[in-house]
Predict the 3D structure of the following.
Amino acid sequence: MPTSKSNPPVPDGVRYARWAGHALGIILICAAIVSVIRGLEGAFSIIRASYFILYGIILNLPFVQISNARWKWFYGLLVFCSIAFVFVMVVSVMFNYMDAADRGERLGVPGLEGSLIFLALMQVPAVLFQRRPDLID
C-alpha cells in the first residue's frame, strides 16, 4: 500500500492523550522515587518501584522521532509494558486489600489505580495514531 508523503495532521485528542501519557510517566517516576525515599518493604515494592521508573521512561520516549525500523520495536515494548502495568496495578490492589483485611479494615473502590490503568492503556492507540494519523479514518 503506497503511503503519501504528507500525512494528515495529528488530531487534538491524540495529542492530548500523549500529553497525558507524558504526565503519567513523570508521575510514575516521582511515585517510585518517593516510595524509595520512604523505604521499600518487601520484594513486590522493589519490583513495583523499578517497574514504575522503567515504564515512566518508556512513556516519555519521543516515538514520533524514532526511525521506522526501530519504531516497531519500541512500539512493541510499549504494548508489552502497558499490559504488564495493568498486571502490576492489579497485584498492587490485591496486596492493599489483603493488608487492609489483616488490619480489619475495608478498602473502597480503587479509583486511582483504575484511572492510571486507563491512561496507560490509552497510550497504545495514541502512539500509533500519532505516528500514523491516516489510520484513524
Remarks:
- The first helix runs from residue 12 to 38.
- The CA atoms of residues 52 and 111 lie 18 Å apart.
- Helices lie at 12-38, 43-59, 68-102, 111-131.
- The chain has a mean pLDDT of 89.
